[in-house]
Each structure stands twice: as C-alpha cells, then as structure tokens.
Amino acid sequence: MAPMLMSITACSSSTGTTSPGDELHFAAMSEMPMEVQSAPKTVSDAYRFAVANPEATKNVPCFCGCGAMGHKSNYDCYVQDAPNNGKIIFDEHALGCSICVDIAQDVMRMTSEGRAPPQIRQAILNTYSRFGPSNQP
C-alpha cells in the first residue's frame, strides 16, 4: 500500500498522565486522510489518538506480526513518519488490522482512567502477547 501523506497543522497533544474524567486528546478528523475519515469510528479514533498522543502509543508494542514490516510500536501502525515540517505520512496498516486498533482503544481507555504509562504497557503485554510476537524488545 502507498503511504498516505497529510499535513497536520494544529493537533493537540497529551502530556503526562490523564486524571479520570479528563478528556482524551485527538487530532481533528478533518486533518486525517480520506481513508481514515471513512473508516469505522473505532479505527478513525485510533488514528486520531495516535497522532495527538504519540508517546502513549509508542509506549506499547503491537502483537499482530507487524514487526516484520519494520514497526517498532503500536504508533507505527498509524504513522509511518512525522517529520518536523508537520507533513505526517500515515501508515495504512491499522485500517485493516483489528489487533492494532484494539491495542490503541485499550490505551485510550486506560489513559482516560488515569493509569500511568508503565501500567498501561504491562496491561497491553498481559492481554496481547498471546496473539503473536511483540514488535518491541
């Protein structure tokens, strides 16, 4: 699949942990490629969350086998490259991979519950390691 190139000009980002009840940060839907905009809500939300919260999804591995594609974290399932010029190159992989999306959805849920990144990482490892090899050491 060809990478999707899109310029993100003003996406919010999350810093630190989120307290229960705090809203999650998402990149604007209008800044997503058409493929993401027309995807099911769980998929588009995962892309929007990954873009706005790169550290949250870089913190956790993926277990769908995407390490063979060079992916090093769940973030890589959504974003191929995010150069400083703001022109994000999206990865289409998560458009068709439910494991990638489920992991991001779990990260979103646990973040909104106020869990710390190490707790989130461990929960992802415990839940998804049965599906395949981790793409992180």
Quick synopsis:
Helix content is 35%, strand content 8%. By secondary structure, it is mainly α.
Could you please describe the fold and organization of this structure?
With 137 residues, the chain is mainly α. It has one domain (29-131). Helix content is 35%, strand content 8%. The protein is built from five helices and three strands; from the N terminus they run E-H-H-H-E-E-H-H. The chain has helices spanning 34-37, 41-52, 54-58, 98-112, 117-128, and strands at residues 4-7, 79-81, 87-90. The chain has a three-stranded antiparallel sheet. Helix 2 (41-52) packs across helix 4 (98-112) and helix 4 runs antiparallel to helix 5 (117-128).
Query: Major beta sheet, specifics?
Result: 3 strands, antiparallel
Order of helices and strands: EHHHEEHH
Strand content: 5-15%
- Could you tell me the number of beta strands? 3
- Gyration radius (Cα, Å) is 14 Å
Helical stretch tally: 5
* Helical percentage: 25-40%
Structural class: mainly alpha
Overall pLDDT metric: 87
* Measured distance between first and last alpha carbons: 27 Å
* Cross-sheet strand order for the largest sheet: 1-3-2
Low-confidence stretches: 5-21
Number of separate structural domains = 1
Characterize the overall form.
globular
